[in-house]
Amino acid sequence: MVNARLPLIAGNWKMNLDHMQAIATVQKLAWTLDEAKHDAGASEVAIFPPFTDLRSVQTLVDADKYPIAYGGQDLSVHDAGAYTGEISGAFLARLGCRYALIGHSERRQYHGETDETCQKKVEAALRHSLIPVLCVGETAADLEEFGASAVPIGQLKAALDGVSPDADIVVAYEPVWAIGSGQAATEEQAEQVCAALRATLAEMLGEDFAGRTRILYGGSVKSSNIASFMRQPNIDGALVGGASLDVAEFASIVRFYKHVI
Ligand code: PEP
């Protein structure tokens, strides 16, 4: 069967690049992709800058019609009110965000985000017509104790509880031991878990939902290993951390289709 899912290459900038640096980086990314004649029908590009950059990114993307989507690195479970420091999905939607990252392992690890919080954040994103990019993945200890799929599947089931089969979501499988370590999963390991996640989506929300939902791999993705992941039938793109800060490297990952045979 032909894979009709548009690959998504998403760059998570984490807490890097202030709004002035964001302007320069987005311009450089757009020029690099344009010069390389990037085919937007072959892969979609999205970036996740810090919240304080989003207005600048929106202004630039809108003015110059850059084919670059963007989103928030997190969002509040609440829509408005006395929640100091929180960012509403409504505000992200007003800034033209298409996506919201949810449940990144750094949020789970350093900010105590539970599966229950992630489920509420998925609901909040969908309420504001944002596409949740739900991150799931096992730690090295989980891998040893439970194997590769059990923890990500459990996180997926919990976070998608109550989601409608009509919803548009993206799942990012990010083994925690591979994030920022320089040690990516092998393509076989990643494919095995992504296939198990897709089977879980089919069980929970039906074949149609599972067939159209994009599942990304994340964890030490670079231009030198992206092609091997993109050859796998259940991997529809990548969530890229460190390498997304290097424009030439990120643009080369976006253009993986030039080096996948
Ligand atoms: C991430 O933080 O989502 C990530 C995948 O990071 P890196 O690419 O640096 O491993």
TrEMBL record:
> Quick one: a GO cellular component term?
cytosol
Q: Which InterPro entries match?
A: Aldolase_TIM, TIM_sf, TrioseP_Isoase_bac/euk, Triosephosphate_isomerase, Triosephosphate_isomerase_AS
Listed A to Z, the keywords are: Cytoplasm, Gluconeogenesis, Glycolysis, Isomerase
One Gene Ontology term of the biological-process aspect is:
glyceraldehyde-3-phosphate biosynthetic process
Principal EC category = isomerase
Q: Name one Pfam family in it.
A: TIM
Supply the EC number(s). Answer: 5.3.1.1
Task: Give the pathway annotation.
Answer: Carbohydrate degradation; glycolysis; D-glyceraldehyde 3-phosphate from glycerone phosphate: step 1/1
- Any one GO molecular function term: triose-phosphate isomerase activity
Q: Tell me which SUPFAM superfamilies the record gives.
A: Triosephosphate isomerase (TIM)
User: What's the protein here called?
Assistant: triose-phosphate isomerase
Query: Which source organism?
Result: freshwater metagenome
